[in-house]
Amino acid sequence: MICRLANYGLHLTIIILAIFVFAAAHARAQGTAGTGSHAAQERDIREAVIRYQMEEWVRQGDKNEGEVKNKRDKAIAKQLNFQVFFVSINGKDPSDEFLKLFESVPRTIKKRSRAKMSSPNMEWVTDKDTHQPGIIFSAGKIRWTKESEVEVEGGYHCGSLCGAGELFTVQLQNGRWRVIQKRMKWIS
After folding, report:
1. Residues with Cβ within 8 Å of residue 150, at least 6 apart in sequence
2. pTM for the complete prediction?
3. Staple 148 to which of 73, 161, 172, 178, CB 3.0 to 4.6 Å?
């Protein structure tokens, strides 16, 4: 009888250990799958941030250019309504495939490496090829706050005194990532 109880206790211990090992392995696999799916979604998240910035700039630039009355303000509005947009992802050039995502934006879209500062005295971002003024939009570090919500560091740079760092809150809505809020971190 004592032998049977000892065997029963040993079997019970083995079963409990097996359950713990299985549960730990399952939890580890779930964590890996979640991380992998996050990585797969990061392109879509950064696209949402870049698209949001571009579309907002186009909308405001076209509006400002159409509303100003005097010649001086019209010239400033025209200068800031950039026709060339550059893209930077984590401080680097995006892939050609990523740039194709913005074909519907009514501007010329190029990689960050195609931009340069125009002159030592009045440093504006310009296109290396056409020398047109432009603006660099960026999307960088992503911080997951919820399974369907993230914060993304980003912003724009168009000259030595023309730029901003922003924090975008991006949420998954109906299968698409959308910017739902932006907060200014700095501006020049």
Report:
1. 45, 142, 143, 144, 169, 170, 171
2. 0.78
3. 172
**DSSP, residue by residue, the chain:** -HHHHHHHHHHHHHHHHHHHHHHHHHHHHHHHHHHHHHHHHHHHHHHHHHHHHHHHHHHHHHHHHHH--SHHHHHHHHHHS-SEEEEEETTBPPPHHHHHTTTTSSSEEEEGGGEEE--SSS-BEEETTT--BEEEEEEEEEEEEETTEEEEEEEEEEETTEEEEEEEEEEEETTEEEEEEEEEEEE-
Mean pLDDT of the chain: 83
Give tens-digit pLDDT for 70-107. Answer: 888 888 888 889 999 999 999 999 999 999 999 999 99
Any idea how long the chain is? Answer: 188
- Amino acid, single-letter form, for residue 113: S
What are the boundaries of each domain within the chain?
42-187
Specify the pLDDT at position 119. Answer: 66
Q: 109 pairs with which residues across the strands? A: 85
